[in-house]
């Protein structure tokens, strides 16, 4: 007798006879769904499932071939091809999304899936038919023609110009920036949400004040940006060459200066100002550290 792994082994009847199970009895340990099993107590699992199997065999006949749940068209449910997602005979335990499944109650998983898939496919096909019908209707109507070159439009505009010489023909001027919007406008209005301009007034008044204040600030900043930059320097700085700009001052560096100071990390026990004043880059009186280094190099013994 070949093993079960290679397609052989005992048949279902032989294994049932070997275990001594009655007809309809589930093997103890079976964790699948068994109707009404949770309402039975006091007997073994085998006896309860045997009685339930006999009861259900008399009360509920087997489903006929080609059985389809109520409300489901058999032709609507596609067969599984390995790529399609929604098919008939959905396996319980599938955790993916099934359209409208959350609104179905009282049926088995298979029946609920079949009904939902049928409704989904029917609705989808109906919308596709409506879309195609709308496209066909749109194509059947003639296309709109531009009226810019229509002589009738030209004559009407000339007539309007003759009868209304003072009014502009088109809206040539844009709306003023400081003109408040109509009540109900939900867009952003500057300077009325975080200042006193938006308190204690009507919408028209507050929006006008906010827009005028914002316009004044904008014009002020624009005027400041247009002014030329004036740099006042002393005579000693003007006479210095372009490379002579001291970064490390003779008076020392200000505390909390986060820049780099050479040899600073090797000094301890003094304040930040005393430490920086004692460094070579700060204690010299030259225009820059390069001049100081050249002087020290020239004065060094050969």
UniProtKB/TrEMBL annotation:
Keywords: Cell projection, Cytoplasm, Cytoskeleton. Its main location: cytoplasm. It is found in: Cytoplasm, Cytoskeleton, Cilium axoneme. GO terms for cellular component: axoneme; microtubule cytoskeleton. Residues 26-53, 89-109, 253-277 form the Ciliary microtubule inner protein 2A-C-like domain. Pfam families: CMI2B-like, SPMIP5. Residues 174-216 form the Sperm-associated microtubule inner protein domain. Belongs to the CIMIP2 family. This is Protein FAM166B. The lineage of its organism: Eukaryota, Metazoa, Spiralia, Lophotrochozoa, Brachiopoda.
């Amino acid at each position: 007798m070949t093993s079960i792994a290679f397609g052989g082994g005992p048949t279902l009847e032989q294994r049932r006879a070997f275990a001594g199970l009655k007809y309809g009895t589930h093997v103890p340990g079976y964790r699948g769904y068994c109707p009404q099993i949770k309402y039975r107590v006091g007997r073994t699992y085998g006896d309860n499932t045997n009685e339930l199997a006999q009861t259900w065999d008399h009360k509920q006949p087997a489903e006929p071939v080609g059985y389809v749940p109520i409300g489901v068209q058999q032709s609507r449910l596609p067969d599984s091809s390995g790529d399609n997602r929604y098919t008939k005979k959905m396996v319980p335990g599938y955790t993916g999304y099934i359209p409208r499944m959350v609104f179905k109650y009282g049926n088995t998983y298979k029946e609920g899936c079949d009904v939902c898939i049928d409704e989904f496919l029917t609705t989808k096909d109906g919308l596709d038919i409506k879309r195609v019908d709308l496209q066909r209707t749109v194509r059947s109507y003639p296309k709109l023609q531009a009226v810019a070159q229509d002589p009738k439009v030209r004559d009407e505009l000339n007539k309007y110009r003759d009868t209304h010489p003072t009014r502009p023909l088109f809206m040539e001027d844009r709306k003023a920036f400081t003109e408040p919007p109509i009540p109900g406008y939900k867009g952003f209005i500057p300077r009325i949400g975080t200042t006193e301009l938006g308190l204690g007034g009507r919408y028209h008044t507050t929006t006008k004040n906010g827009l005028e204040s914002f316009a004044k600030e904008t014009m002020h900043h624009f005027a400041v940006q247009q002014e030329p930059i004036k740099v006042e320097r002393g005579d000693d700085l003007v006479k210095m060459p372009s490379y002579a700009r001291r970064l490390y001052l003779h008076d020392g560096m200000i505390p909390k200066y986060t820049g780099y100071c050479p040899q600073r990390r090797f000094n301890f026990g003094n304040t930040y100002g005393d430490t920086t004043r004692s460094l070579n880059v700060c204690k010299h009186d030259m225009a820059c550290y390069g001049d100081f280094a050249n002087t020290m190099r020239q004065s060094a013994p050969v």
